[in-house]
Amino acid sequence: MMPARTIAPRALAALGVSFIALLAHAQTITLEPIAQIEVSSVTEIVCYDQVSQRALITLASRPVIAVVELDHPASPSIERLIDLSEYGPTVNSVACHDGLIAVAVDAQEHTNPGRVVFLTLEAGIVRAVTVGSMPDMVAFTPDGTKLLVANEGEPSEDWSTDPEGSVTIIDTQSDFQARTVHLGSDHPASEVTWLTKPGELPGFAIEPEYIAISADSRLAFVVCQENNAVATIDIDAGEVRRFDWLGTVDWQNAQGGIDTHPSDGEIDPKPERFVSLRQPDAIAALATTNGLRLVTANEGDPRDTWYRDGTAKVQGVWVAQSSKTGDGPPVLFGSRGVSLFDADLGLLWDGQGEIEAALRERRQSGELSKETAALIDERSAHRGIEPESLATGEIDGDRVVFVGLERAGMIAAYVYDANLDALTLSGLTEIAHPGDGGPTASPEGLAIMHAEAHAAGMNLLLACDEVHGTLTVFKILSR
Question: Could you state, in order of their start, the residue ranges of all structural domains in the chain?
Fold first, then answer.
């Protein structure tokens, strides 16, 4: 058993946990912290196995899965560790369905094909399946018959090797047979930027990051974060149905959340406006009375080099290099909020800037911790609060979306409003972390435990903190 420190619920409040109710709604969603444990390693992705009533957590510092006992959610414990080092040096993701667990493992050289290891807590390893380069995320279809793998295919550090991004579909009902959906194309490499639509990209430059799957298990929506796009895949046919570029949001007159911080010797004039590529990390599918809806957490992802393009600064704000000298406004990475799309990736609603605006109000009223307020200031010229992870579910009849704010150490709660066909911001919860001072929490993975799925009979949210290596258990309340 791995040593773990449990932080009692009463102590969590002393560590700066706070809930902020923001907008009135028929159901207001709140999070009450009931437990936190330190895993003594960087914790990233978490899933909940309903059969064993255990949480599975990936540890970034070594190829290990931690198994967390949750029979009594207010006092969780690390039950055991599962060592996967014989399959590769790094574990990237984990998913669970009816007792079957899938783990994405990098190859020793991450540009080589990786593997997905299937296992159960009772029987151990069931099968290891070779997939594409750098398997970054795994997701079961709702019916459990297939597992999809987003093979990101990032280049080597010197860019001498750049594998093609792909999605592997593994049939869990047919001896784990696998097939690969290639997201690239045959056209030659050309000068491209983050602004370029995927149809104009060399195939190896398309990098799948995260997957959402429709409730009927027929369609997969694959975020290609650096490309600011989503690929829609017909799962049964194993074919790409379409690519959709996600566009930009506009910050007119450099207001609405983008605070410029000119450096010494800054000679660039202050632009009248910035625009942001959405560049989501996570994507989630919602089954609503209005049909399928897709939610994206628009984190952003710049690179120092990207096919003859790169990053630069305008008034201290990081932008795409090509946009600094172009005719249009400077282009930032990530839109600092969440977006709602229909099944054809038509934009229905965008929460641009509203989370940061709410945080600024709470800072003025003294409701934010000094650490969080300072971090939000520091991040304004970069990618802001960086919404990254998503967890969705039905809570007391409402479709609820939880969003991990990586650079604010918080979780935002949204409720889907069927009348408006939009999301309503319901609350923000600041995540506690061990000790005083130092960096805030950094939520990397979220998972919902529905009341009917475990003996405790309450709706819970699990959150991993990749900076401090903790797992926090929240009780989900609605009123």
Answer: 5-478
Instruction: Give strand pairing partners of 4.
Output: none
Give the C-alpha separation, 162 to 183, whole Å. Answer: 14
CATH class of 5-478: mainly beta
Predicted structure pTM score: 0.92
Q: Is the distance from CB of 69 to CB of 114 less than 8 angstroms?
A: no
Tens of pLDDT, residue by residue over 75-104, are 999 999 999 999 999 999 999 999 999 999
Q: Tell me how far apart the alpha carbons of residues 209 and 149 are, in angstroms, rounded to a whole number.
A: 9
Q: List own/partner pairs for 397-401 with CB under 8 A and 24 or more apart.
A: 397/27, 398/26, 398/27, 398/29, 398/478, 399/286, 399/288, 400/29, 400/426, 400/476, 401/284, 401/286, 401/295, 401/338
Q: In what order do the strands lie in the sheet with 229-234?
A: 208-213, 219-224, 229-234, 239-245
pLDDT of residue 416: 97
**Residue given tokens 């027929």 in the structure block:** 218
Give dist(CA 298, CA 238) in Å, integer.
Answer: 27
Q: Which residues pair with 67 in a beta bridge?
A: 56, 80
Q: In sequence order, which residues have a C-beta less than 8 Å from that of residue 226 and are 6 or more positions away? A: 194, 205, 207, 279, 301, 303, 306
pLDDT digits (tens, 9 = 90+) for 373-420: 777 777 777 888 999 999 999 999 999 999 999 988 899 999 999 999
- Reference 435, options 388, 460, 467, 400; nearest CA is 467
Q: Give per-residue pLDDT as tens, 299-332.
A: 999 887 777 788 888 888 889 988 887 788 899 9
- Distance in angstroms (rounded) separating the CA atoms of residues 448 and 426: 17
Spatial separation of the C-alpha atoms in residues 274 and 258, rounded to whole Å: 8
Q: How does residue 186 score in pLDDT terms, banded at 50, 70 and 90? A: low
Answer for the pair 383, 300: CB distance below 8 angstroms, yes or no: yes
Q: Which two tokens stand for residue 261?
A: 């911080």
Contacts of 231 (CB under 8 A, 6+ apart): 167, 183, 198, 206, 208, 221, 222, 224, 240, 242, 243
**DSSP-based three-state secondary structure for 8:** coil
